[in-house]
Amino acid sequence: MPVELPKSVVLVTGGTGLVGFAIQHIIETEPVGSRFGRREDESWVFLGSKDADLRDSEQTRGIFNKYKPTYVIHLAALVGGLYNNMQFKHSFLRDNMLINDNVLHFAHEFGVSKVISCLSTCIFPDNVTYPLDESKIHLGPPHESNFGYAYAKRMVDVANRAYRDEHGSNFTSAIPTNVFGPNDNFGLEESHVIPALIHKCLLAKRNNTPFTVFGSGRPLRQFIYSYDIAKLFVWQLREYNEAEPVILSGGEDEEISIKEVADAVVAAVGFEGEYSFDPSRADGQFRKPASNQKLMSLLGGKFEFTPFAVALRETVQWLVEHYDTDARIGRRKHGSNGVHNGETNGHKEGTPARVEREEPCMTE
User: Fold this and answer.
1) How many CB atoms lie within 10 A of CB 259?
2) Region (Disordered): which ranges (predicted)?
3) Are 92 and 78 in contact (CB under 8 A)?
């Protein structure tokens, strides 16, 4: 009788959030054994905040003892958009430091073969020459608006190098630009720019009210579809073994203004009402273009990014289909239109949304 070999276990923290959801989609839809597909001898575990509080050392130990992962894709974080980052700097710093320290510590203690952590372009210095690349992470302080989150994430890179130098650990990280897609957090108070704009525009259409975009609309950003990021995480798990992070992004020539994003959202939602910008609200950093030269070199130039308009249309369609069931929209009214009434999904007023999900920080 043939002996059944034990399966490798890939543990994805923050596995029920935007990128975790996308990775699960890719693992389930790409051909087994392909460049972005799962291996036959693998078991994938997608961990959500209901499974454990990764800020707690003993709960984190329990997760590693239960699953004994071979590999970890570490996406879990306390995250938010510009205004949450500005208001809750200490919470974003401390909670993320605890999460990251616990995950890396127990990955080392349990002999995990490889960890890929998710960082963010907001870890880069505020005053730095563009485009951003992997060599510029520690050349100065991050932008004031999100320094708590940014320093917590930046320290993951420091920890990765320290574990590697002292213990030989294969710990590395990815730096995505602004990610969006199905199963994003669309809550108006804590979401990032694209999901927030989609949700606001959808509500304006449903309620026949004006659609107002916070800020001038002038800042520029690079966006990447969550399903594309998911493929790149699988690629990095298979093929990349250096400590230095890799920026996961489209080309630096693909920056798009917030106004262009809002225009595209209006078109995708089919909104025909009054539409304006409120320049009295903060814009955040004007631009922070990132180079994907290293990524494309490692990929051999063979990767097709989903066109922005296609990705946006699919994201809007997903929210429309899931709005009244399982979409994360923050406060939810018990009725047919899903408009807010003050009830929350575990989020108290005056505190940051404690969501263990993967999304990198964005300063919109």
Assistant:
1) 16
2) 331-364
3) yes
